[in-house]
Amino acid sequence: MKCERCNKRAVFHITDILGPAQLKELHLCEECAARYLSEPIPGTQLASSSGTSAEIELLQQWEQLHCPECGATFKDFRNTGRLGCPHDYEFFQEQLRQLLESIHGEIRHLGKVPSRLATPERRRLELARLRRQMQELINAERYEEAARLRDQIRQLEARMQS
What we know:
The structure is a single chain. This protein is mainly α and about 160 residues long. The chain folds into 3 domains: about 1-40, no CATH class; about 45-110, no CATH class; about 120-160. It contains 7 helices and 2 strands, in the order E-E-H-H-H-H-H-H-H. The protein has helices at about 30-40, 55-65, 75-80, 90, 95-105, 120-140, 145-160; strands spanning about 10-20, 20-30. A two-stranded antiparallel ribbon has the order 1-2. The longest helix is centred in the last third of the chain and has 21 residues, at about 120-140. The relative contact order is 0.07.
């Protein structure tokens, strides 16, 4: 297969997800792929001038961090929306965690239950999820929230027995 930009041999096959059911496939040579991956993705740059002085100072500190494996900076990620290598997930873990929490309100994808799943099985999955969540709250010493989950668990267990 040939590169879509210069007709050299394509060695990178990139799939960008633009939206629901919208995919963009690119087949690029090494040089064109390097240029493409360093370009900012429209709409992904984070505003660095807005926020408190403490937030701006924190962003400036993050921008000085460099991955020891690939040399990528957190600023590179902020500009392109792409990490440089698999080690970046661990190296920028704290920054990515805070970013995900601020965007999604969660740092973990909870997923969805298939609609074809039988009701008793759904209840068992929900019960397991609530128990895990309650244990996390207990470990974090957030007892009032854990008590609310305990009550939900008891209600769900009662529904399962009837």
